[in-house]
């Protein structure tokens, strides 16, 4: 992949050199340095988007070690660590980034995101408070909503979620988070509506399907919602619904749902079978 990028850069150089007027002096070293920058920028973008996250971590770690004062490489390392789900390391990397010259408010949002992923809610709030109020982005409001949720500041959480939804063309996951917040508060009807809204935006978002079943089960509605689902997803949702019924005290209904889950799954459904066996043994 890198060889292709280098070849492309040399072709661009060759074309650029041939286009110069006769007798025009060319600084070859300067041209090569510019090409190296172009090549490296393209490579950085590839590692941040389509490359394997752990390969990206290795690439940026090497590059940042060679030139530790390059904030773009330190930023790439932090982003790659989060993509690789190495959240504690990512939080440390983002802390290093925000301490460097040239750090931006967006870098502070990256740090707050990493702190939330490590359940460091107090420092996440402090980091968000340090972001200028003029930064009114989707990421900022999404993170503010999550922190307000963690602090059980429901009024602020709802306001931030609503603003975040209005700032993105892909609000499914935010709607799902908002719905889960309502679910934890015991506002099951509102939660159900938000999960349905999330699925209208992204019909493949399984966490929203599962949360929707939880919200319905909490209202003792033990039928699956009318949403697209695969056979495996149907079995998993029946399992969730069955356990919810048992938790509500509707044990016989829970057994029936668990039996249906076992029968529906295209393979052996160990978790549902084990739960059913425990209930029947009891």
From TrEMBL:
<dbReference type="InterPro" id="IPR019734">
    <property type="entry name" value="TPR_rpt"/>
</dbReference>
<feature type="signal peptide">
    <location>
        <begin position="1"/>
        <end position="19"/>
    </location>
</feature>
<dbReference type="InterPro" id="IPR011990">
    <property type="entry name" value="TPR-like_helical_dom_sf"/>
</dbReference>
<protein>
    <recommendedName>
        <fullName>Tetratricopeptide repeat protein</fullName>
    </recommendedName>
</protein>
<keyword id="KW-0732">Signal</keyword>
């Amino acid at each position: 992949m890198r060889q292709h990028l280098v070849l492309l850069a040399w072709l661009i150089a060759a074309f650029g050199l041939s286009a110069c007027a006769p007798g025009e002096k060319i600084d070859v070293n300067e041209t090569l340095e510019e090409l190296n920058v172009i090549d490296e920028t393209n490579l950085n973008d590839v590692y941040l988007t389509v490359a394997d996250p752990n390969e990206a971590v290795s690439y940026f770690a090497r590059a940042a070690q060679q030139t530790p004062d390059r904030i773009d490489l330190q930023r790439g390392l932090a982003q790659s660590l989060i993509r690789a789900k190495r959240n504690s390391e990512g939080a440390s990397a983002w802390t290093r980034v925000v301490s460097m010259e040239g750090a931006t408010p967006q870098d502070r949002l990256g740090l707050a995101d990493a702190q939330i992923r490590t359940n460091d809610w107090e420092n996440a709030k402090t980091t968000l408070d340090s972001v200028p109020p003029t930064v009114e982005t989707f990421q900022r409001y999404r993170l503010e909503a999550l922190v307000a949720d963690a602090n059980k500041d429901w009024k602020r959480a709802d306001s931030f979620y609503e603003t975040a939804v209005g700032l993105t063309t892909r609000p499914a996951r935010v709607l799902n988070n908002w719905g889960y917040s309502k679910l934890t508060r015991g506002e099951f009807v509102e939660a159900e509506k938000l999960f349905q809204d999330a699925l209208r935006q992204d019909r493949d978002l399984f966490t929203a399907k599962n949360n929707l079943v939880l919200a319905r089960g909490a209202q003792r509605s033990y039928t699956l919602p009318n949403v697209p689902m695969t056979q495996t997803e149907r079995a998993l949702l029946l399992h969730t619904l069955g356990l919810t019924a048992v938790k509500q005290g509707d044990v016989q209904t829970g057994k029936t749902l668990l039996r249906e889950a076992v029968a529906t799954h295209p393979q052996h459904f160990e978790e549902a079978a084990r739960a059913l066996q425990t209930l029947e043994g009891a």
